[in-house]
User: Fold this.
Amino acid sequence: MTRKRFVAGNWKMNTNRASAVALAEGVAKLVPSGDVGGGAVDVGVAVPFVYIDAVGRAIAGSGVMLGAQDVYFEKDGAFTGEISIAMLVDLGVKFVLVGHSERRHVIGEKPDLLAKKAKAILDAGLILVHCVGEKLDERDANKTLDVVKAQLDELPATLADASKLVIAYEPVWAIGTGRNATDAQAQEVHAFIRGELSRRYGQAFAEAVRIQYGGSMKPENAAGLLAQPDVDGGLIGGAALKAESFLAIVRA
Assistant:
């Protein structure tokens, strides 16, 4: 089946208010109505919490979806420093990342916490971008598929709406290191992920889920990666911080 591509920029802990708005306006100007590639590509930006409101205003009326980089699973209460689903919905957020490698390996979030976040996002009807991927020592020990399989276990046991789930495969060893997975390496893991989703939720569900590549996709390598049959877009880090390079990937 033909899946609509999804290219999302993850701005991480970058920008200030002025540069965030300028970047958002630059992206929105080139994605005026959501019909990029004849309607074949969804475009989104996951921005720092403090600029979600400003960026939301900057992209209003365009085809760019507003995203958040994280969320807490509780509805409200005494959770100092955390952000709830309701707060994100209030600001127009449409998709949320969970389990990005930096949340797992730098912040130290554990699988049970990530599972609760994933469920909360799906229960709220938002799009979950669930990030999976292996570290270099795991790749070298041929544990890639075992690691990815365990991270997919963080998803709910039953799922019905494939349009609300996106998987982002991000080989941790290829993020910001100058190393890149080959097109074939990316396809191998993406195909494995789709197979796992089919085993868990059925073939029709798996065929409808979009699987992004998140290992330092750039304008130079985007075309080859996106030509792979199971690569349905990208979760873009550094290249998303300039509108021109981000849109070059979208065009690819």
About this structure: The longest strand covers residues 41-47. Residues 183-201 form the longest helix (19 residues).
